[in-house]
Design a protein that fits this description.
Blueprint lengths: L1 E17 L2 E15 L2 E7 L9 H9 L7 H7 L4 H18 L3 H4 L12 E3 L4 H10 L5 E5 L6 H10 L4 E5 L6 H13 L2 E5 L19 E3 L18 E4 L1 H4 L2 H13 L3 E4 L6 H10 L5 E2 L17 E2 L2 E2 L9
Parallel strand pairs: 4-5, 5-6, 6-7, 7-8, 8-9, 9-10, 10-11
Antiparallel strand pairs: 1-2, 2-3, 12-13
Helix pairs in contact: 1-3, 5-6
Amino acid sequence: MSIEVTRDTFRLAQVFTISRGSRTEAKVLTVKVTRNGVTGWGECVPYARYDETLESVEAEIMGLPADVSREALQGLLPAGAARNALDCALWDLEAKASGKRVWEMLGMPAPGPEITAYTLSLDTPDNMRAQAEKNAFRPLLKIKLGTPDDMPRLEAVRAGAPNATIIVDANEGWSAEVYADLAPHLVRLGVALVEQPLPAGDDDALIGMDRPVPVCADESAHDRASLPRLKGKYDIVNIKLDKTGGLTEALALREAAQAESYGIFVGCMVGSSLAMAPAVLLAQGAAFTDLDGPLLLGEDRATPLRFDDAGVHPSSPELWG
């Protein structure tokens, strides 16, 4: 088996801003694994928040044995972007070699579309209202917040999209005091979920705090080893393939989280349809799905995922799985 890694850049449709900064393009690694003339592929998005760079993740992948199996991979690399791209590429390879879809290999029923959130990036209240008005037809909007002055932004989005379900992502940007002040207003404005309100290292402050709106762990939740640290703080777990290190661990985390009565949120980094395709399987039946990466791009893979009023559809075999 051979492993090939390439760097790809996808232009964003517009500047995308969260509490940690802005970007105009998505830089990803594409991994291809070939065995006996059959090639599978996967994608990852190295993330600086987790001390990942394109160079470091590529080095992790290329340091592996060329004939690594998906089972062996789980113990050779930690959870993160490198393992994700290779794990998903190996799933794709196994599917193509067997002539089956990945969902068939997993014993799942045929997957269907899932309603996905559409993300409005952090901006001035006026600009966020304009974004909300433009996307008010969408059933689920996710708004990026995470500053001490978010109340006008939240009010503006609700005014711009009065009928949409809204979820809020603070990206670790609030203090416990800011969150406590905002919580009643989240209820008043009909917010369905607040994602990672406090920094992962300071989230013990959530223990014993009223949670009138369900609170979702994102930066605090990576793989199954993260679950014990979430108890008493969170109601929902955001599962992202780039955090879990691939579909294999993501499926195991979903099962473990459900066994502990957590709700499931399936999210993504900003990547192409190739990165989202395995996550669509993971998102089947999830409480919330946020796989809008391709909708934020100005360009995508040659065979992209289909998005319509029913949501994000499962991939074709030409894309993945």
